[in-house]
Design goal:
Elements (H helix, E strand, L loop, with lengths): L11 H23 L5 H21 L1 H19 L5 H37 L5
Helix pairs in contact: 1-2
Length: 127
């Protein structure tokens, strides 16, 4: 049996882009706290701008491009799903509730039967 190949970041440029994206995330958090004396809106804008830059750099790297491709493929597959009608959904929900009710009664009866056998018949404890 062969081991599956693990895909890694292939080029040095992609590694550099991922490193820059990571540094931008760290810089975003650091800027938020370093600007502690500023108004909150300035801190939030600085955080969001740096995070947007990090996301932008990430999506230019190969892993980011693969993520975009995967998202597109997932969206296309989601469009192929045949969703149930309201009537079908309500029927299936009813079946689930009925099954849960039947199982609850069954488990309650089993519990009470075992309790009666163990405590009343075998141990002879009377309540």
């Amino acid at each position: 049996m062969t081991q599956p190949q693990v895909e890694t970041v292939s080029s040095g440029a992609d590694k550099a882009k991922l490193a820059v994206a990571a540094l931008l995330v760290v810089a975003a958090v650091a800027a938020y706290y370093l600007l502690g004396q500023q108004d909150l809106w300035i801190r939030v804008v600085a955080l969001l701008l740096a995070l947007a830059a990090a996301i932008g750099v990430f999506f230019t790297a190969e892993p980011g491009k693969r993520l975009i491709g995967f998202s597109g493929d997932s969206w296309r597959e989601l469009k192929k799903v045949v969703w149930p009608t309201r009537k079908e959904a309500m029927q299936m929900t009813g079946y689930v509730f009925a099954f849960v009710g039947v199982m609850a009664v069954f488990l309650w009866l089993t519990d009470k039967s075992l309790e009666w056998v163990l405590y009343d018949l075998i141990l002879g404890w009377k309540r």
